[in-house]
Design goal:
Layout lengths: L1 H31 L2 H21 L3 H16 L1 H28 L1 H8 L9 H11 L2 H17 L4 H5 L2 H13 L8 H17 L2 H6 L13 H34 L1 H38 L3 H38 L6 H16 L1 H16 L4 H25 L1 H27 L4 H28 L3 H23 L2 H11 L1
């Protein structure tokens, strides 16, 4: 498990670098663009991102990694041939979707953001979408390369690569957007340039790892057929997640463009701990679980899953509590200047609070779903995801009138809880004990440590009105208090992390 923890640290470092520049990007966007323009761009960006999750880092990676790992154990040349064929087919399929998306962009925009129709924003959103849509092909290629490198135990560069997209945004905002009659078009151009750069930065790692490319297209390759068989239900399952994102955008557009902007910025803050730890833990554990199952070591696979869930709880739970308490000063400190008003701060924090409630559940789902994928079962996650999607849609209708944009986030949190609960119940029934008793103990201890940490944060806010002190001092104090209390409570995962840092 120590090696897994080290790999998680490498992934987290790469993601942290990307996130730092991502927040600089968001600061620039918030400063130079009013909420209406931000809402239009973010609504347009949701669409190719949804397809990215389906064909890129979602269904493709989940279906590709177990098969690629198996080939690596048997014949590296055949593994690289399989990855090349997959890449070539991926380019063909995504190019078709890009062409269709560009042609039908006005219709797509009207469906995804119906509230923009009365405001006359659909033409600008459609123009933006046409430029962004080719990013779908670029990011899917990036995701496949990442899957190959992760299978080869190369984690840092793939997680660092998205930094190039953020740098592209920053460059466009400074050097391109001010000279355009419609500045958000510059943001769309930045998306394409960044997509190319994040592929390019991974090429040296592929070469140094001995990866070879074969210009071959074949639907009869056994690995491709097996992957397609697994990928079809995965596409349905990941599509459900994308539909949820579209649902949030649809309901957000009914509230107004500022709501979509608030949802985006709240999501960005939630995504920091989610990507930094939740996603990295799932990314590292998935190839390991797949390898254990290929070698018929079910006990080790279960142990890895239990370890993943405990790591998620120990890191994500205090982060969620911290965001619920420090969210407002964090948003104000980072974004409240230029055209990002105090009203934007309040709206974004309102959404953030409800998103933070479900942060542990979002983070844990990746690890549990990965176990099903490693078992070759892509149907069960589809079923639970559909149920969660229906819960999300119904709760959006229920909460929207009373809570507006906050209700959208709360519905997502509750739906995520339903999803992971169903997955764990089904998995335990199928393979027996999976270490949930240890997970529950860790959860209770972490809850107590987070509660004491929360009290210390409230005291910081009470005694100081300085934003920098509230955020900087609060975060440092929260980490120290949580670690000390966690050690006193015997949370072993904290001791493991500290031993790694010392090493």
């Amino acid at each position: 498990m120590e090696r897994l923890t080290k790999n998680v640290s490498l992934v987290s470092l790469g993601i942290l670098t990307s996130r730092i520049f991502g927040y600089i990007r968001d600061v620039f966007i918030g400063h130079y663009f009013p909420s209406e323009a931000r809402g239009v761009f973010f609504a347009a960006w949701v669409i190719p991102n949804s397809f990215r999750r389906i064909f890129g880092e979602g269904a493709l990676s989940a279906s590709f990694i177990p098969i690629f790992s198996k080939y690596l154990c048997q014949d590296r040349k055949e593994a690289f041939r399989f990855s090349s064929i997959t890449l070539n087919l991926l380019l063909i399929v995504t190019s078709i979707f890009v062409i269709i998306g560009v042609a039908l962009s006005p219709i797509i925009c009207g469906i995804v953001a119906p509230g923009f129709t009365k405001l006359g924003l659909i033409p600008l959103m459609s123009k933006t979408l046409r430029i962004i849509f080719p990013y779908l092909s670029l990011v899917c290629v990036f995701a496949l390369i990442m899957a190959v490198l992760n299978s080869l135990s190369k984690f840092f560069i793939p997680t660092f690569a998205p930094t190039m997209v953020n740098l592209s945004f920053i460059g466009a905002i400074i050097f391109l957007c001010p000279y355009l009659s419609e500045p958000i078009i510059g943001l769309a151009v930045a998306v394409l340039i960044g997509g190319i750069l994040q592929i390019a930065v991974q090429i040296p790692s592929l070469v140094s790892s001995g990866v070879r490319y074969y210009p071959e297209v074949s639907l009869n390759h056994p690995g491709v057929r097996q992957m397609a068989k697994r990928m079809l239900p995965s596409i349905v399952g990941i599509s459900v997640f994308s539909i949820n994102s579209a649902v949030d955008t649809i309901f957000g557009s009914l509230v107004g463009p500022y709501a979509i902007s608030a949802i985006y910025y709240a999501n960005r803050l939630v995504q920091l701990p989610l990507s930094l730890f939740g996603t990295s833990i799932g990314m590292v554990s998935f190839p390991t679980i797949s390898r254990h199952l290929v070698e018929n070591k079910m006990d080790l696979a279960k142990e890895t899953l239990s370890w993943s869930l405990r790591q998620v709880i120990v890191v994500i739970l205090p982060a969620a509590v911290g965001l619920m308490i420090l969210g407002k000063p964090i948003i104000s400190l980072l974004f409240e200047h230029g055209k990002f008003s105090h009203t934007d701060v309040l709206s974004s924090y309102y959404v953030l609070f409800f998103y933070a409630i479900g942060l542990v559940f979002y983070s844990g789902i990746n690890s549990v779903v990965s176990f099903f994928y490693a078992l070759g079962d892509t149907k069960t996650p589809v079923i639970t995801a559909i149920i969660a999607m229906l819960v999300n849609i119904c709760l959006n209708w229920v909460f929207l009138k009373a809570l507006e944009e906050g209700g959208i986030a709360l519905a997502t949190s509750i739906a995520s809880f339903v999803n992971i609960s169903l997955l764990l119940l089904i998995l335990r029934k199928r393979i027996g004990r999976i270490g949930l008793s240890e997970v529950r103990i860790t959860f209770l201890k972490s809850c107590l440590a987070s509660l004491i940490m929360a009290i210390s944060l409230l005291l910081v806010i009470w005694f100081s009105k300085n934003l920098l002190l509230q955020v900087g001092g609060g975060i440092v104090l929260a980490i120290v208090v949580y670690i000390i209390v966690g050690i006193c409570l015997g949370i072993s995962e904290i001791n493991g992390i500290l031993r790694l840092k010392k090493g």
